[in-house]
Amino acid sequence: MPADPRTLLDALFEAHFDRIFAYARRRTIALSDAEDAAAETFVVAWRRIADLPLSEAHQLAWLYGIARRVLANQRRAAARRQRLADRLRAALSVPRQPSPPTDVLDALAKLHERDQEILRLATWEGMNHTEIGLVLGISPNASAIRLHRARRRLAATMKGSPSIRTWTGWRGSVTDPEQGEEV
After folding, report:
1. Burial of 100 (0-12, 13-18, 19+ CB in 10 A)
2. CATH of 102-182, one of 3.40.630.30, 1.10.10.10, 1.10.760.10, 1.20.1600.10
3. Which of 64, 151, 162, 177 lies at a C-alpha separation of 20 to 30 Å from 4?
4. Quick one: how far is CA 108 from the chain centroid?
């Protein structure tokens, strides 16, 4: 058996990776979890290469033992993440906002990305002109002007649909530039 640690690990990897991956795959739901577990098994084996059994017959069992502990660590980490997510959800208890009507979403998709973003910031995030200006790196006055223009373009795209006033929440009127009438 070669004495060089790198050569030892390369030989170990070539001889046993497929079996370690299959072992991990049979014990995980997601393919990516099995890939991570197999990779981590060989990372640990690299760190503990001095503990590698001399008998080739025991080397695979040694790797299985490492893989077993790696998978247990993955499960514990996943459980911790789930508990944290549950606690955050309970602590925040953010009420789910209703989705905008389909006609609004369709019209919004037709606008330029910068118009979409300013409308989303104002409507979905509930930001005022100053906050929008901070997010976009513009002055509050510029954000007010851009928001007004974006609302006009959205109204023109929607051609007077009643959903626009409900969704955007603004109380002003917008005149349709083509018809000269209020939308």
Report:
1. buried
2. 1.10.10.10
3. 64
4. 23
Q: What is the pLDDT of residues 62-120, one digit of tens each?
A: 999 999 999 999 999 999 999 999 888 888 875 666 667 777 788 888 999 999 999 98
Strand partners, 176: 181
Rounded Cα–Cα distance for residues 99 and 110 (Å)? 18
CA–CA dist 109, 105 (Å, integer): 6
Torsion of Cα atoms, 2 then 8 then 13 then 14, to 10°? -20
Under 8 Å between Cβ of 104 and 143: no
**pTM across the whole model:** 0.50
